[in-house]
Structure formats: C-alpha cells, structure tokens
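Hi R.,

Here's the input for the protoporphyrin IX containing FE complex you asked about:
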Amino acid sequence: MSEAVKSDLEKVFADVASNYQGSDIDLHATYAKMRAETPVLEANFMEQLGVPSIAGVDPNRPCYTLFKYDDVMRVMRDSEQFTSGFIAEGLGAFFDGLILTAMDGDLHKSMRNLLQPVFLPETVNRWKEQRIDRVIREEFIKPMLPNKSADLMDFALYFPIRVIYSLIGFPEDKPEKIKQYAAWALAILAGPQVDPAKAEAAKKAAMEAVVALYDAIKEVVVQRRAEGAEGDDLISRLIRAEYEGRSLDDHEVTTFVRSLLPAAGETTTRTFGTLMVQLLENPDVLERVRADRGLVNKAIDESIRYEPVATFKVRQAANATEIRGVQIPKGAMVSCIVSSANRDEEAFVNADKFDIDRKPRPSFGFGFGPHMCIGQFVAKTEINCALNAILDLMPNLRLDPSKPAPKITGAQLRGPHELHVLWD
Ligand code: HEM
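And here is the predicted structure with protoporphyrin IX containing FE in place:
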C-alpha cells in the first residue's frame, strides 16, 4: 500500500469523526433526561449539538426530535406516513441513480425485492467461507501476531474496506486502488459540514470523489457484463438480478455499488471497535465468549443496541399527525434518536448495562422497517469472523495499560478512535 494513500485514508477518517463529533456532553445522561422530560422536542436536537443532519437540509421546514423507543418504532415502521425521498435533496450528483435509502413506496419495494436476494444469509455464508474469513485471518490478523500489541482501530479501519471491495468484485491485484476508493468514499461522508469555513472545500472534494468513484466502478461493471457476469461477486450478481421481469442497467448497478461504499466501510469499522471496547472492558464477558462462540452474535447484537454507530435517522411527515400529544405538521422533519430509543428504560431492563444475556428485542442500530439495513448479514458476518479470528489467535487479549483507555465518542458515527491491546 502506498504511504500517501494510507495517510489520505487515515486523515479523511479523522475528518469524518471530527465533523460528526458534536459538543462534549454526556450523551446518554442527556438522552435519559430528554426521555423523562421532553420525549418529543420541537427542534432539531442534532443542530443543538453542532452535528450536520439531513433534517436541516431545508432550514424552513420545522423539525421534531423523538427520544422514546415506541415513537421511534412507529416512525421507522410506517414508511407511508414517514417518508425518505427528501434524502436525495441537497446532495446533488451523489444521489443520481439507484439510491435505495432515498426511495419511497412501490419503487422502493420493487428495487428492494430485486436487490435483497444478493444480500441474504445463503449468499453471505458462501462469501464467508470463500472470501471474508480468509482475508481477515491471512491478510490482517496473522501478520499482526508477532508484534503482541496493536491499535485494533488500525485493523478496524482497513478490514471492512478490503472485504467489501473483494465482495463487490473489484480486481484483487490492485490494493492501492482499493485504498484510493475508500478515501473517496469517506470524502463523500465528510461532504456536509456545519463549519462554513470548511463547507465549500469539503463539498468540492465530495463531488470530485463522487465522479471519480463512478468512473472507477463503471469500468468494472462494463467489463463484468462483457464477460457474461457469471461470477459470485456482488457486481455480477447485481447484473443477473431480476424481479418481475425488471433488471438493472450499467448506470443503476454503478450508482447502487457507489452508494454502498460509504454505507459499508466505516459503519463496520466503528461497530467492530465499539464491540471490542465492551468486551475488553468486561473481561469476564470476553472469556465467556472465547469459551462459547455461540455467544459471538449475541455480543454483536447487544453492542449494536448499546452503542449504535448511526445514532439517529430522519424521516419526513407525508401528512399532518400527532406524536405523544405533539402536533406534527405535513412536511415536517422527524429526527429519531436511535441511541436514546435503544436505552429506553421502558423497553429494556437495565438499559444502561451491556448485557449479552438480555432477551432479544428489536433495536434500531441497523434501522427498522422497510429501509432496515440490507447489508446487515454482511456486516455481522465480517464482525463475527474478525472476533472469532482474534479469539482464536490472540491469547490473553487485554487492554494495554500503558496507553490511554479507549473512549467511545461522537454524537453521530459513534465509536472509539484508538484501541490499544496486548496479547501473549
Ligand atoms: C455495522 C455496519 C452497518 C451499520 C451499523 C449499518 C446501518 C444502517 C442503517 C441504520 C440503515 C437504515 C437507513 C434508514 O433507515 O434510512 C442502513 C441501510 C442500508 N445499509 Fe447499512 N449498515 C451497515 C453495514 C452495511 C453494509 C455492509 C452494507 C452493504 C453491503 C450496507 C448497505 C445498506 C443499504 C443499501 C441500506 C439502504 C436500505 C434501504 O433503504 O432499503 N450497510 N444501514
């Protein structure tokens, strides 16, 4: 990997984190107070924290922020009343093409039906054996072993990108290109800035990245189609996908794949990092999971409830309605605070405890309802493979006492930035 590209990726990851950091308050204590006192706030709470939010794309639209589990569930479930089409506004060229997250109604349903089979466990399990597990063990974990110490966030930054790019079907022999694509994908996330001094440059960089990624992906799509698209990779599967006689053209495959890059990389990075923090801070739980690998997925699910990386989701009210006695006008933005709903004491017993034995109940770390993350089996499988490889190959894994303790931060895109560990 070229050093220039590596530092580009690390720099842009840090830029994204600082952009979504928000003010330095105890978020969970604040949310507990909001649930008790103002469960429906007549304002954009993320704006108050200084974090960019798509709820603020049109400053003339009123915004309401929800903190309770039941209210967030109602909004996430009802995609007719609470729509997503507005997500395409304000992001220009990035939202040209097949962008599932910004589609509503029958169009979303038919596209989702077309794409869903490509992401089902049956496909993902085949990828797991043939690609995911091998890449994580051979290319990442085994080369780290002689050092007996690491910042696990270095590993976390690179492995999801490496895995997803392999699944997508990018040429395996050009690793420097993959790092470049990853830096471009992160530049898209750093696009919306609250600081006006940074806004113009960030938007320009995001737009350049959007175009560069399009050209790079389109080249591979055209090539795969010309070769007959018979492979097991995501691009070939998307080319072959069909629903009610409809299939995807090259532009649609390209724009869908491009939309996956920011969706699939650093979300997995931070989710893995947060899971490891919980386990390393609770060594008894770590040992239980090491001894019984049936607990790996429970630990992942609980970590996603406890500290979701995507801390809020926004929808727009299609009609006037009422939530907990508060009137929501037609066209208003509704911001659902997932981090708060996931700790709602009326939904979860001992909600502030990381408890892998808790009774399963839906939480919103991957969203919920029609737009629920289509890549969740991919993400969970990657994290499962990463944790299993670490447990198999790094005995006596523990936090490095000579380094700063890990901290989970960020009002949005939440997770740790450093995670220093030792093993025997
Ligand atoms: C741990 C990692 C991940 C997290 C936390 C995450 C989180 C989410 C969330 C919260 C949503 C819902 C958005 C909404 O309701 O508006 C979503 C949607 C989506 N995610 Fe993920 N995601 C992750 C990994 C992935 C991966 C690996 C892929 C692809 C391989 C992916 C592709 C998508 C797509 C395409 C959607 C849009 C679905 C739709 O609108 O119908 N995500 N994700």
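One thing worth noting: Residues 196-226 form the longest helix (31 residues).

Cheers,
M.
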